[in-house]
Every structure is written in C-alpha cells, then in structure tokens.
C-alpha cells in the first residue's frame, strides 16, 4: 500500500498544493490519501495519522509520502521514534521537500542506518527549533498594558474574535439533525481576517456542543 499523508495546521492553508507535490514524487503505485487539519504537536487529535501508523504496524504500508518531514512531527523524540517504527516494519518514507534523503536508502548496510540516523536527528532538531522560535516571535510581538486590551506590535487587538452567533446556531441545529462533528465542520463556512471563506474546525464544533450540553444540565 502507498499512503500519502497531508497535514495543514489550519483550514486557511491549501492541502491541494501539498497533494499535488506529493503525487509528483510518487513512483510506487496507486496511493491512498489521508488528509488532516491539525498541529503536528497534538497526537491525540490526528486520527488519520493514527490510521497510517496502525497500517504500518500491520505491514500494509510500504511507502509513506509526505510534503515535508515536519508534517509528521515537530517534536524531535517522537519524530525519531516514528522513523524507527517504519524501519522495523519495512515502510520507506518519502518527502517532497527532502528528496535528497532518497540517496540514504541506497547506502549499503550498516552505514545506511548510521548516516540516516544522524541526518534525521538534524532534521528533527531543526523542525522543533523552528516551531519553538515561531512561538517565541509571536509572544514577543504582543503588547500588554495593564487595564487595556492586549495588542499586537502593529496595534491590532490581540486574541480571537468573538464567535458569530450564527455559527453556534447552525452547529446545534445540524447536531439535532444527527450529523457527526466532522460532517458539521465540513458543512459550515466562516471567514478569516481577509474575508476568505474557510470551514470551521472540528474542535470548535466540539466546544459549542459541549458548552450547550453544560447549559442544559
């Protein structure tokens, strides 16, 4: 089986761009595509990735294609653990943005594992460091003044905008109709700060339903 894993951290990103790039390096057969909108830090909220992991353990996946290594994990230890898992069960990982790594599959044993382990550690470290630096830049850009709303360095109000009441009503109405959380998230459109259309997240749907349940109890 050939698996393509597409992960975007928000619905504002376009997963089709990643899919197009992944398909361009596929030389192994007809793939099955797994798409996810979630952070690589949150393992529990990545059901599609967990499906791939289980299929790897069952020996079903022989090639896993991703857009970049950080689509899998941004945590260095988990990143390395997953690669070791793939080595044990005979699954080769291919990355559109790290195609140079294909050459490491051609290195004779035992040097292939020694060199690839070194390179993977460096890649995982860079992915983790980049994510941490991004978080620090965001925190440093926040301007806090006691007694006043928090603002960004540009002077814009910081934090999420209040959720439109329309969205809450639509979520609860569709829930009454028996739709699943995923179905609800994929059927309700909102707008980002640039007025671009996007679908609401599954986590938002879950939050609205949970809050409504508490209010009824």
Rough outline: elongated
What distance lies between the first and last C-alpha atoms, to the nearest angstrom? 47 Å
Q: Give the CATH level 1 class of the largest domain.
A: Alpha Beta
Over the alpha carbons, how many angstroms does the gyration radius reach? 21 Å
What is the CATH T-level topology of the largest domain? Rossmann fold
Low-confidence stretches: none
User: How would you spell out the order of helices and strands?
Assistant: EHEHEHEHEEHHEEH
Which strand order does the major sheet show?
2-1-3-4
Identify the CATH homologous superfamily of the largest domain. Answer: Resolvase, N-terminal catalytic domain
Q: Assign the CATH architecture of the largest domain.
A: 3-Layer(aba) Sandwich
Number of helices: 7
Describe it for me?
The chain is of the alpha/beta class. Helices cover 44% and strands 15% of the residues. The protein folds into two domains: 133 residues, Resolvase, N-terminal catalytic domain (Rossmann fold, 3-Layer(aba) Sandwich); 52 residues, no CATH class. It is built from seven helices and eight strands. The protein is elongated.
Provide the fold topology.
Elements: E1 2-8, H1 15-24, E2 31-37, H2 47-57, E3 63-66, H3 76-88, E4 92-95, H4 111-140, E5 142-143, E6 151-152, H5 165-176, H6 181-185, E7 189-191, E8 197-199, H7 202-216
Parallel strand pairs: 1-2, 1-3, 3-4
Antiparallel strand pairs: 5-6, 7-8
